[in-house]
Amino acid sequence: MRGIVFEPSGSVGFKEFPHPEAGPGEAVVRVRASGICGTDLQMLREPQTGVVVSGHEACGDIVELKAPSPPGLRIGDRVMVYHYVGCGVCELCALGFEQACPNRLSQYGRSANGGNAPYMLAATRALIPLPDELSYNAGAALACGTGTAWVGLRKMRVSGADSVAIFGQGPVGLSGTLVAKAMGARVMAVDITQARLDLARAAGADHVINSRNADAVATIREFTHGKGATASLETSGSTSARAQALQCVRTLGQCCLVGMGHDPTSLEITRDVILKSQTVFGSWTFTRAELLQAARFMVDATVHLDSLITHRFSFNEATEAFRVFAQGESGKCVFVA
Q: What is the pLDDT of residue 266?
C-alpha cells in the first residue's frame, strides 16, 4: 500500500506500507476522503521523519473489525476518524479532551499512520459515525477544520442576535462563515486574499473586508453602527489579526481564538478586554462527543459543507495538491479515493 509522507527534506513523498490488519479494539478503514489542513503545511515546513502516513482528516468505510469492538460499529459503516487517541483513563480523557492526554497520545498523521493512503488502521473508539446525509468530503472537513470552527462558535453561543467577525477565510474561517450563517448570525469575513473573500461571500458572508486595503476594526464598527461585533472568531493565527479580533468586539462581547499561527510571542491583552469586560476563549479542536454533535448540527441545519471543497485530488497528485493549498487562495482541498 502506498501512502503520502512528509520527507525529512521538507517535500511531499510516497512510501510503501504494509496493508493494515486490525488487532484487538482496532478497525481498518477504507479511506474515501482525506482533507489537507493548515497543520499539514506546518509539518511539511518543519521536516518530519517520513516514517508515517500523513493526513489527520480521514473519512471512509469500516472494512475490518477486531473484537472487542463497540456494539454500535459494523463492517460497512461510514465513519469519520477522530485523530487523537489518549490513554483513556486520566482525568482529561475522562472529560473527553484526549488531545491533551498527559500519559499516552497517539495522533494519526503525526505519530501513527494517517489517512493519506487507501486504507487506515484506527482504534475503534476513534471512529465517529458519519450521518448518511453528509458526504465523505463533508466528513473529512468536519474531522478537523470545520469541527474546530463549529466548537469555537458554539462556545460563544452564537445565534441570530449576533454580529460575528471572522478573521481568516482559509478552510477553518470559511467553515466559520458558513456555520455562523447557519446559526443565524450576521457575518463579517476578514482576510488579506481576495480569492478567499470571494469564497466567503459565496458562503453567505454579509460583508467581506480585505484587511490589506482597509482598517478591519473601523470597518467592522461601521457595519455595526459604531458598536463593534458581538463576537469574533480568529482562525489565521496572525498576530495582527488576533489583536484586531479583540479590538473589534463591543462591550460585553466575546472573542474565540483558534488559529495557532507561527509566532511564539504571547498575546498582549488590550485595555479593551478589561474595560469592555470582554470574554476571551481559547479553543483547540474538539472532543469525540463534540464531533458527533457537530455532524448532527450540519444535518439538522442543512449546512452545505460540500461548498467548502474547492479542489479534489487523487493520492497520486499529492505534490500538486499541497502546492495548490500552500498558495493560500483555495478553500478546502481533499484527497478523494
A: 56
List, in sequence order, every residue forming a beta bridge with 249; answer none if it has no partner.
Answer: 229
- The pLDDT value recorded for residue 300 is 98
Pick from 35, 166, 171: nearest CA to 108: 35
**In-domain check, residue 313:** yes
Q: Could you tell me if 226 and 321 lie in one domain? A: no
pLDDT at residue number 97: 94
Residue 93 lies in a domain: yes
d(CA 131, CA 208): 32
Based on the domain organization, do 97 and 175 belong to the same domain?
no
Domains identified in the chain, total number: 2
Residue 150 lies in a domain: no
pLDDT (tens digit per residue) in 136-159: 999 999 999 999 999 999 999 999
Residue 137 falls within a domain, yes or no? no
User: Which of 47, 53, 40, 39 is CA-nearest to residue 113?
Assistant: 53
pLDDT at 263: 60
70: which strand partners?
A: none
Q: What cell numbers appear for 329 in the block?
A: 487562495
Q: Which range marks the domain in which residue 118 is found? A: 2-130+304-336
Residue found under cell 489518549: 86
**What span, in angstroms and rounded, lies between the C-alpha atoms of 221 and 154?**
23
Q: How many CA atoms lie within 13 A of 217 on its CB side?
A: 12
Ranges of the chain with pLDDT below 70: 262-270
Looking at the fold, whether 272 and 308 belong to one and the same domain comes out as no
